[in-house]
Each structure stands twice: as structure tokens, then as C-alpha cells.
């Protein structure tokens, strides 16, 4: 396959390039993990006073709808609540998260910034804001939000994961690995942290260590398809093309495999030239 000068924006693969969706799974898994607790229903003790009114049952319905994955309907439900209770931080958080998952990042940012004004110590608001900024290719701003969140709650897994992703996007891999290791010290069995740590290692030239971690994770049948994608990429970065092909062959057709291999070679060449590729892989 002949390749033009390497200008691919990996965040837009689904739109710009004819590569298989499986190639997006490592990226999707990474960014989805940033907000694993973003839709947690607040307890009565933690819910702000403005969320304790008659709209609380509507709020629970909206949150349950969002959790089910129907973000279009959830957004409408949250909009109704915000219209009645414009200072409901939980409703604003849910609305911002739903907008973000619908791809409406500017609307999400506006709503979440308002929630942050109302409650500047709300860790979930800061974490979802971080995810929104990552999706807008604003890794520095995302990192600032995650750092604020972690000053409030050092154990928040959404903020820990997001900080690592933001640092890897900026090709600050040693710092990202410190973030993941900090998270793993608290959540040693967490798949997302281990997966992201392994990818960060690979991008900093430590493919052997990365492969060992991913080979262990791939034995989990639930997460195996996602890990296989990542493992294939790391094999490619390490120059182990036969292993990469064999791994991809479990999910892809031959033509798709060769398209993926072309990307791996380009990334490997850039790494060999000392170029930073974090923004290509994570953005």
C-alpha cells in the first residue's frame, strides 16, 4: 500500500479514512473510560440542595435513561429539569454529559461550565469537562480540569484515567505512567488503567513490557476484542508484524489487516525518528 505523507488525524478516522471500525476501539475505550462514574446518581446526602426538590424523581429518570445509553432522550429530560431548576448541578451535569456523548461538545462545555460555577468542587463536573476538552483537542485544558478534580478527590478513577489520557495526548508519557501507577495502587485490578498504562509504555518505547501486560489482559473474554486491537498495534510498533497480523486476523478481513499494518508502520517510523505520536493515537 503506498502511503502519502503521514497526516492522519486519528480522532477523525471514522469520517476521513476507510479503516475498519475495530481500529477505533482502543481510542473509544480510552475516552469512554474517562467518565466511568460521570453518570453516577448522587446520594441524598451528596446531592446539592437545589436538587432535592420536586424534580428529583424526574432527575432519577433522566439519569437512568442516560445510563441505558439513550442520550437523545436523556438530554430532553435533563433540558426539562434545567428549565424548571436552572441551578440544579446534577441536571446540568447530566445534560452536559448527554450533549457530549451526542457529539455536541460546545453545548456540553457551556452547560458544564455553568455547573462548575455553581459548584466548583464537584469532581464529576470537572471530569466530564475534561473529557469534553479532550474531544475538542484541548489536552492542556483537560489536564487542568483533571488536576483540579484530583486535588479534591485523589481516588476519583475518572479523573485519574483522564489525567493519564491527557498526558499521553501531550506525549508526556512518563508523567502519564505515574498517573496510571497511582491509580493502580488504589485499583490494582482495573482493566482500563492497565490497558492505558500498557499503551503509554508502548508509546514511550517500552513495547516489551506493554506486550506482557496486554497479553495477560487479552485472556479476559469480556474485554478481549478491545485488547486484541491494542495488542496488535503494539506488536506493530515493536516491528512484530507477523504477530500483529495473526492478532488482527481474529477479527478482520485480509484487506483490513493490511490497512491497519500501514498505520502501524507509519507510527513505528515516526517513533524511530524520535517524533511524538501521542496526539495521533489519543486525540
TrEMBL record:
Where exactly are the transmembrane stretches of this chain? Answer: none
The region called Disordered is annotated at 44-65
Q: Whereabouts are the TPR repeats?
A: 55-88, 89-122, 123-156
- BP terms from Gene Ontology: proteolysis
**What Pfam families does this protein's entry cite?**
TPR_16 (PF13432), TPR_19 (PF14559)
Give the Gene Ontology MF terms in alphabetical order.
peptidase activity
The enzyme's E.C. designation = 3.4.-.-
Q: Which domain of life is it from?
A: Bacteria
InterPro entries attached to this UniProt entry:
TPR-like_helical_dom_sf, TPR_rpt, Ycf3/AcsC/BcsC/TPR_MFPF
Q: Which SMART domains match?
A: TPR
Q: Does the keyword Hydrolase apply?
A: yes
The record's listing under SUPFAM superfamilies reads: TPR-like
| Top EC class for this record | hydrolase
Keywords, sorted A to Z: Hydrolase, Plasmid, Protease, Repeat, TPR repeat
Q: Which Gene3D superfamilies match?
A: Tetratricopeptide repeat domain
Q: State the PANTHER family in the record.
A: CELLULOSE SYNTHASE OPERON PROTEIN C, TPR REPEAT-CONTAINING PROTEIN MJ0263
Q: What is this protein called?
A: Beta-barrel assembly-enhancing protease
